[in-house]
Structures are given as structure tokens and as C-alpha cells.
Amino acid sequence: MIQFIIKTVVTLTIILAASAIAKKSSLMGGILVSLPVVSILAMMWLWLDTKNKMKVAQFSTSVFWLVIPSLVLFISLPVLLKKLDFGWAMLFACGLTIIAYYLMVLVLGLFQVKL
Question: pLDDT tens across 86-107, in order?
Fold first, then answer.
């Protein structure tokens, strides 16, 4: 239970710090959140929980392939914000991203890449 609390506090602190920094400087906030901090933390927590190198390697490979469709959010959101209110723009951008994830999984399946 203590490990879960530590994980939660560390992860929450990073997210809150990124939000606070972004209020002052969108560049610095962008740099902080563009770093694969969440992925690194997830790999560390996975390693500490399992001590299984293969699980960490598989997770890392999945993250690699799924970064590509996640870029749809960052491409579509600024475009949509020019035409829609924030809530609608975010909703549609997330929907497009979900579709991109689905398509990526389908395409990878055609090439026998297992996530």
C-alpha cells in the first residue's frame, strides 16, 4: 500500500508541476510534458513491481508504436480550437486520436507486430 501511495504522490507532483510551469511559460511546460516522464515512471513502476525485463521491453515497444497516433491530438487540437470552443475541440481531437490508435493497431496487426 505504501508503494502505491508513493507512486501516486510522485506522479501527481509531476503533473501538477507541469501545469503550474505551463501557466508561466508554455515553452517550459511543453518541454516538461513532452519528455517521456510518464513512460519513464511507468517503466520504473513496472520494473519495481515485476522485476521482469521482458515486460518492460514489451511496454517500451508498445509506447514507441503508440506515440505516432498520439500526435494526432497535437495536430488536430490547434486546428479545431480555431473553429470550436475548447470542450468540443478537445472532444473531437480525442475522438480523432482514438481512431488513429485503432488504425495503428490494425496496421501493425497486418505486419504481425504484437502490442
Answer: 999 999 999 999 999 999 999 9
Element (H, E) at 68: helix 53-81
Question: Alpha-carbon distance 81 to 76, whole Å?
Answer: 9
Q: Where are the domains of the chain?
A: 1-35, 51-115
The rounded distance, in Å, linking the Cα atoms of 64 and 10 is 23
Taking the C-alpha atoms of residue 47 and residue 54, their distance in angstroms, rounded to an integer, is 10
Q: Which of 68, 71, 69, 14 is nearest to 41 (CA)?
A: 14
| pLDDT tens figures, 63-83 | 999 999 999 999 999 999 999
Q: Could you count the other beta carbons within 10 Å of the beta carbon of residue 17? A: 14
pTM over 0.85: no
